[in-house]
């Protein structure tokens, strides 16, 4: 049996949403920054532990300073969100607690992962104190550049969709 | 004294033999040199000698071009096109434009001939039938003639979940693009247009692109997109609308329970007769 789920990648400009998506889909990384305009839609089919096929339709959205400013119609019918921030640029996570609260309130049924990207450039421990102080729980620190944590991020998300 | 004369005679004879031969050889060589110099310096004479050789080599070169220079030229052209795509397009554009114009002119001529033929058969059965149909349906006879000349054809049908853009089912004649991505992108475009220009809760109902029209019909939890080629007239639009309304009456109650394969089969059965 094949099931289809819509996954939306969220976050501010230049945090690496497209790089994460590209690393996951094609295992490649491009150094040059090309901002996403509107939305890019990609697809990946994986096999779940049950043997069922999961078709992930990944909506890689253009960056917005706040999730509230993202085109709401793009988020309709989503099954999973991945919120990405850049651990090297504090302004991409300084309102993270508010963003998480907004998503949980507006989309309570959507499976939600928060990840800090670019761990190849900065030690995540350096921002951990800040996150702890604000009581923000992160699902993973990843690197689209090296590929570290990317596969696991999507696999964990896929497994939450059950069988 | 006599001995001395004899010696002198012999020497003279030997000198004559040697010098006469030398002079003759020198003369012969000089003459030959003059001919060669003249041949080289005078174009006509040089051409007379060299042209056949050049021609032969040139013929040989032309024969060998495909095998010797072909790969190099192809590679150079590929490289050139790759590096200057814009310039190549710029150069080809006028030629392509002319070709397209000629093609369109031919198609219009063909269409015009077909229409003339239909119009001239005023008293044929099909003409009377068309006139009657026009009266009954209110569709102009000219529109009916156009439809007959280039009838609309359904190429693809997508049943897509509203909002998520997830493809619920599909009926297609082609296997070119990934249907999931098409339905996702279509939904994104639809959402964008509806957000940007909707002015409330209005829905995008059609997209036209070159030879195709995308008819979109919205239902409660899903929408249906039909790709139509050919002459998409109001009467055909109305026909599709009615057909899709009938389809939705059967599909809507069970759409959330059916798998994608089941919806694919449902579409195939539903549109079997209509194809």
Short description:
The complex is a heterodimer of chains A (163) and B (275). By secondary structure, chain A is of the alpha/beta class.
Number of domains of chain A: 1
Indicate the radius of gyration of chain B in whole angstroms.
43 Å
Find the count of extended strands of chain B (DSSP E, 2+ residues): 5
The CATH level-2 architecture of chain A is identified as 3-Layer(aba) Sandwich
Portion of residues in beta strands of chain A equals 25-35%
Strand line-up in the sheet with most strands of chain A:
2-3-1-4-5-6
Tell me the series of helices and strands of chain B, N- to C-terminal: HHHHHHEEHEEEHH
| Biggest sheet layout of chain A | 6 strands, mixed
**How much of the sequence of chain B is in beta strands?**
5-15%
Give the rounded overall mean pLDDT of chain B. 81
**Oligomerization state of this entry?**
heterodimer
Shape descriptor of chain A reads globular
User: Mean of the pLDDT scores of chain A?
Assistant: 91
Uncertain parts of chain A: none
Total number of beta strands of chain A:
6
Q: What structural class should be given to the helix and strand makeup of chain A?
A: alpha/beta
Low-confidence stretches of chain B: none
What structural class do the secondary elements of chain B suggest? alpha+beta
Q: What is the helix tally of chain B?
A: 9
- The backbone outline of chain B, from C-alpha atoms, is elongated
């Amino acid at each position: 049996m094949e099931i289809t789920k819509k996954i939306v990648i969220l976050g501010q400009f230049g945090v690496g949403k497209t790089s994460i998506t590209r690393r996951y889909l094609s295992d490649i990384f491009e150094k040059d920054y090309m901002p996403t305009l509107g939305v890019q839609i990609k697809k990946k089919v994986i096999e779940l532990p049950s043997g069922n096929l999961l078709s992930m339709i990944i909506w890689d959205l253009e960056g917005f300073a706040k999730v509230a400013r993202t085109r709401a119609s793009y988020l309709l019918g989503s099954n999973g969100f991945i919120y990405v921030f850049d651990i090297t640029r504090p302004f991409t996570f300084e309102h993270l607690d508010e963003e998480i609260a907004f998503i949980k309130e507006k989309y309570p049924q959507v499976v939600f992962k928060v990840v800090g990207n670019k761990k190849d450039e900065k030690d995540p421990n350096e921002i951990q104190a800040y996150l702890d102080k604000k009581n923000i729980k992160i699902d993973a620190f990843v690197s689209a550049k090296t590929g570290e944590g990317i596969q696991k991020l999507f696999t964990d998300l896929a497994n939450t969709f059950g069988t | 004294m006599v001995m001395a004369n004899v010696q002198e005679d012999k020497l003279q004879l030997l000198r004559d033999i040697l010098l006469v031969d030398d002079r003759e050889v020198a003369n012969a060589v000089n003459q030959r040199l003059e001919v060669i110099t003249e041949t080289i310096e005078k174009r006509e004479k040089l051409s007379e000698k060299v042209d056949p050789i050049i021609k032969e080599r040139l013929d040989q070169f032309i024969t060998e071009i495909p095998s010797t220079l072909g790969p190099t030229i192809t590679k150079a052209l590929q490289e050139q096109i790759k590096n200057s795509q814009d310039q190549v397009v710029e150069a080809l554009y006028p030629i392509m434009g002319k070709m397209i114009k000629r093609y369109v002119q031919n198609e219009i001529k063909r269409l015009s001939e077909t229409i003339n033929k239909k119009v001239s058969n005023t008293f044929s059965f099909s003409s009377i039938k068309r006139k009657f149909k026009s009266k009954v349906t209110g569709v102009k006879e000219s529109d009916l003639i156009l439809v007959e000349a280039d009838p609309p054809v359904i190429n693809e049908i997508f049943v897509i979940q509203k909002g998520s853009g997830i493809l619920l089912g599909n009926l297609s004649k082609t296997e070119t693009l990934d249907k999931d991505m098409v339905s996702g992108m279509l939904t994104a475009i639809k959402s964008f247009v509806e957000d940007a220009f909707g002015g409330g809760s209005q829905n995008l109902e059609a997209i036209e692109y070159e030879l195709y029209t995308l008819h979109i019909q919205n239902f409660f939890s899903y929408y249906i997109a039909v790709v139509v080629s050919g002459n998409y007239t109001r009467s055909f639009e109305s026909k599709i609308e009615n057909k899709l309304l009938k389809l939705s009456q059967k599909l809507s109650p069970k759409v959330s329970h059916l798998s994608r394969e089941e919806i694919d089969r449902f579409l195939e059965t539903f549109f079997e007769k209509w194809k």
